[in-house]
Write a structure and sequence with these properties.
By secondary structure, this protein is mainly beta. It has a single domain, classed as Jelly Rolls. The chain is 3% helix and 45% strand. The protein is built from one helix and 14 strands, in the order ββββαββββββββββ. The strands form four sheets. Strands 1-12-9-14-3 form a five-stranded mixed β-sheet, with no helix packed on it. A five-stranded mixed β-sheet has the order 2-8-13-10-11, with no helix packed on it. Strand 10 and strand 11 form a beta hairpin. The radius of gyration is 14 Å and the shape is globular. It starts with a strand and ends with a strand.
Length: 155
């Protein structure tokens, strides 16, 4: 399993309520999420638009990570922030889109990228430490934007 991070201070982080999957039709886009281990809900859905003007590789400063290449184009600011209030033994983050998208995560301990976790959709699964994780969803062409859904599952 992959370890995503080290302990990180949560000072100054605003509280944000997650969107539950049954609330998806009225859910706002680009939402942030707070999660605590072993507390409901076991699955959260958030959504947004992929893409942006910035190269993922240049933004993250790496061409490859242990989870995949840093490819595509992203916004300057993260699309989402996931704030983990404890250690997660197994947390899965999957992106679903009708277009080919990429994933960039920066958090405690480093950066992780992926572009083909399940078919053309990116994702990451592993053990995650507490802290704030910045999430970007990219597109393969600069300034091309596509709707996506991220499914976050505690396993």
């Amino acid at each position: 399993m992959l370890f995503l991070g080290v302990l990180f201070s949560l000072a100054g982080v605003e509280k944000v309520t997650p969107v539950l999957s049954q609330d998806l039709p009225s859910a706002p886009i680009f939402e942030n999420v707070n999660l605590e281990p072993k507390s409901p809900p076991k699955q959260i859905i958030i959504r947004g638009l992929s893409g942006g003007p910035m190269s993922a590789k240049e933004t993250i400063g790496r061409e490859n990570t242990v989870t995949g290449p840093c490819v595509g184009f992203i916004d300057k600011e993260p699309d989402h922030r996931i704030i983990l209030k404890g250690f997660f033994k197994s947390l899965k983050l999957e992106v679903k889109s009708s277009e080919d998208t990429t994933l960039v995560i920066r958090g405690p301990g480093g950066s992780w990228c992926n572009d083909d976790f399940e078919g053309k959709n990116p994702g990451i699964i592993g053990q995650w430490f507490s802290g704030t994780y910045e999430i970007w969803i990219g597109s393969y062409q600069r300034n091309k934007y596509y709707p996506y859904v991220i499914k976050i599952t505690q396993e």
